[in-house]
Design goal:
By secondary structure, this protein is an alpha/beta fold. It has 14 helices and 17 strands. The chain has three domains: 82 residues, no CATH class; 96 residues, 2-Layer Sandwich (Beta-Lactamase); 243 residues, Rossmann fold (3-Layer(aba) Sandwich), CATH 3.40.50. The longest helix is centred in the N-terminal third of the chain and has 21 residues. The radius of gyration is 26 Å and the shape is elongated.
C-alpha cells in the first residue's frame, strides 16, 4: 500500500514540475508538425484515434530525442497531450468532475476550484498565458464569442448550461482571469435540499404552499450563496398546467417543468448595436401570455417592469437579488427603481413594492461552504411609510450533546397573513402548532 502512495506522490511531483511542462511543450510542437503533414483529416478523428496517434508519436519522439523519462511519466505526458489536442487541456478533468462548482484561473500558474462551497487551490497549471488563452478560445469557439484586445471581456453561457467569464490584458494585469461556473444537469429538488440541510421539511411545506398559492417570492443572498439552486427547486412546485417565462442575463436556470420559455439578454455587437436588455425582454414577455415570470437576477431597470407584472395579474412570479438581509433587499429594490428613473414619490414606490412582493427568502453560504436559508420573511404591507415585514423562520444553529453544530430553524409562531394562502391557512396553523424549532 505504501509503495502505491509513493508511486502516486512521484507522479504528482512530476506533474507539478517544470520538466513536465517543458517536455509536454516540446512534444506538442512535434505533434503539431506531424498533424500539419496529415492535413485536415485530423479534425475528423475520434478521441480514441487521437490517443493512439499521441501514444505512437510520443513513444517515437522520446526514443529519438533520448528524453530521460520512464514509462509512467511518458503515459502522464501522453494523457496531457490527448486532452490538449481533443479537449480542454489541464482543466478538462475539472470540467468533467460533477463535484466541482467553480473553476477560477488567475493567470496561467494559479488555478482554484470550489467544491461544496469551499475554495481550494489545485496543483494544475498552464504552460504560459498563451496556452491558457488557446484553451479559453477553444471553449468560446462553439459560442461564437470573440476575445481580443478590442473586446477584452467576455461573459457567456456554455453549451452545457454553465457560464464563463474572461478578462484579459490590458484590463487583467497579472494575466488572463477566467471564471467558469458549472451547474448541475439535474437541478436539486426541494427534497434533496432538505437532505442537504439547506432548509427543513417544515419550511419546505411552507414554500410549497407559497408557490402553489401564487405568492411573489424574491430569493436574496450573496454571490454563490445558492440563489439559483433554490429558485430551481421552488419551480418544481409550480403546477404543470401553467406557462412559465424565464428571463436572464446568462441563462442559468434549469426548471423541472414541462412548459418553460427561456429568454436571454444580448450584450450587443462590437459597436454596441443590437443590445437587448432584461428590461426589454420583461416588457415583451408580458405579451407572451405567461402565468408566471421568473427573473434570474434583478439588478437594473427591469425592477420597475417586474413590480408592474407582479401587481397586474402575474402572481406567483419569482426572482433573485443580491442583498445581505431582507430589509437590505427592500432598500436595493428602491435604489434600483431610482436608477431606472422612477418618477413617483418614495411612499408610492414603497406601496408598489409592498403590494408586489409577498415573501423574501434570505439564503447564505456559511464559513464551511454549506448553503442555508437564513430567514423566511413575509412582506405584510405599508406601515408609517415603511414597508412592514414579519419574520416567520430564522436560522439559529444549535449545539449537539458532543459539541457538534446542528442546524436549527426557529419558528416565531406567526402564521402568514397573505390572503393568497387562505386555502392553506389550516395546514399552516398546524405547522406552527407542531412545536417546530
Amino acid at each position: 500500500m505504501s509503495s502505491e502512495v509513493e508511486f502516486a506522490d512521484d507522479n504528482q511531483a512530476f506533474l507539478d514540475s517544470q520538466q513536465f511542462q517543458d517536455i509536454k511543450a516540446w512534444a506538442h510542437e512535434h505533434l503539431l508538425s506531424r498533424i500539419e503533414e496529415l492535413g485536415a483529416e485530423f479534425g475528423r478523428w475520434s478521441r480514441t484515434a487521437i490517443r493512439q496517434f499521441v501514444d505512437l508519436e510520443l513513444d517515437s519522439f522520446v526514443r529519438l530525442q533520448r528524453i530521460p523519462i520512464n514509462d509512467s511519466e511518458t503515459r502522464l505526458i501522453g494523457e496531457a497531450l490527448t486532452k490538449e489536442l481533443s479537449g480542454f487541456g489541464p482543466i478538462e478533468d475539472l470540467l468533467q468532475d460533477p463535484a466541482v462548482e467553480d473553476i477560477l484561473i488567475n493567470g496561467y500558474k494559479h488555478v482554484y476550484v470550489s467544491r461544496r462551497g469551499v475554495l481550494q487551490r489545485v496543483s494544475l497549471r498552464f504552460s504560459d498565458d498563451e496556452h491558457l488563452l488557446r484553451i479559453v478560445r477553444r471553449i468560446l469557439a462553439p459560442i461564437g464569442r470573440r476575445l481580443d484586445e478590442s473586446n477584452p471581456m467576455v461573459d457567456a453561457r456554455l453549451p452545457d448550461g454553465g457560464r464563463i467569464n474572461v478578462v484579459i490584458e490590458p484590463l487583467a494585469i497579472d494575466g488572463p482571469a477566467v471564471s467558469i461556473r458549472k451547474f448541475r444537469r439535474d437541478p436539486l429538488s426541494p427534497a434533496e435540499l432538505v437532505q442537504l440541510g439547506t432548509f427543513d421539511a417544515t419550511i419546505s411545506q411552507l414554500l410549497e404552499f407559497a408557490v402553489k398559492g401564487r405568492c411573489n417570492i424574491l430569493v436574496s443572498g450573496g454571490t454563490s450563496s445558492g440563489k439559483t439552486s433554490l429558485l430551481n427547486a421552488l419551480a418544481t412546485f409550480i403546477p404543470e398546467s401553467e406557462r412559465v417565462v424565464t428571463i436572464e442575463d446568462t441563462a442559468e436556470l434549469s426548471l423541472n417543468h414541462p412548459h418553460v420559455v427561456r429568454l436571454e439578454s444580448r450584450p450587443g455587437g462590437f459597436d454596441s448595436t443590437g443590445v437587448v436588455a432584461i428590461r426589454d425582454l420583461l416588457r415583451n414577455s408580458l405579451r407572451m401570455r405567461p402565468d408566471r415570470i421568473i427573473v434570474g437576477e434583478v439588478r437594473g431597470g427591469e425592477v420597475l417592469e417586474m413590480m408592474q407584472a407582479m401587481n397586474t395579474g402575474h402572481d406567483g412570479s419569482m426572482g433573485t437579488i443580491h442583498a445581505s438581509s431582507p430589509r437590505e433587499c427592500l432598500y436595493r429594490l428602491e435604489m434600483l427603481a431610482g436608477f431606472a428613473g422612477y418618477q413617483g414619490s418614495e411612499v408610492s414606490l414603497r406601496r408598489q413594492i409592498a403590494n408586489a412582493v409577498d415573501f423574501i427568502l434570505q439564503i447564505g453560504r456559511l464559513s464551511n461552504g454549506q448553503r442555508r436559508i437564513l430567514s423566511v420573511t413575509e412582506v405584510t404591507g405599508l406601515n408609517d411609510s415603511m414597508v412592514a415585514m414579519q419574520e416567520l423562520y430564522r436560522y439559529e444553529p444549535g449545539v449537539g450533546p458532543n459539541g457538534e453544530e446542528r442546524d436549527r430553524w426557529v419558528s416565531l409562531g406567526i402564521t402568514p397573513h397573505s390572503p393568497k394562502l387562505a386555502k392553506f391557512r389550516q395546514a399552516l396553523q398546524k405547522l406552527n402548532g407542531s412545536g417546530h424549532v
